[in-house]
């Protein structure tokens, strides 16, 4: 394994735009999560901001945050593996059982009203 901890310069450019979950094997298994992260419109055609996914280790536990930027809500999961985390989010999205919480942005805006 190479040394991954090194100083880097920021890359320029527009980045990659994913339009098909087939371009990423992981998301073929999680179509709801793919929709949240990649689709730029709701089924009725209204434009939306795509969601973001944050993966990290905290206190020795693997955690993930699904940030619905369009609705300013967040859902969290903890698990033993990446597939456990993504599977929990997918199951919650499909069953509409995720515990959505207001994001910091939404809370801050409410406080200024």
Q: Strands of the largest sheet, in order across it?
A: 1-2-3-4
Structural class: alpha+beta
Q: Low-confidence parts, pLDDT < 50 over ≥5 residues?
A: none
CA-atom Rg in angstroms? 16 Å
Q: Give helix and strand order, one letter per element, not per position.
A: HHEEEHEH
In round numbers, the mean pLDDT is 84
> What is the total domain count?
1
User: What is the approximate shape?
Assistant: globular
Strand content: 15-25%
Number of strands: 4
End-to-end C-alpha gap: 51 Å
Describe the oligomeric state of these chains in a short phrase. single chain
Describe this structure in words.
This protein has helices spanning 25-28, 31-38, 82-95, 104-111, and strands at residues 52-58, 61-68, 73-79, 101-102. It has 113 residues and is α+β, with helices and mostly antiparallel strands. The protein has one domain. The protein has a four-stranded antiparallel sheet. The longest helix is centred in the last third of the chain and has 14 residues, at 82-95. The protein is globular. The termini are far apart.
Describe the protein's topology.
Layout: H1 25-28, H2 31-38, E1 52-58, E2 61-68, E3 73-79, H3 82-95, E4 101-102, H4 104-111
Antiparallel strand pairs: 1-2, 2-3, 3-4
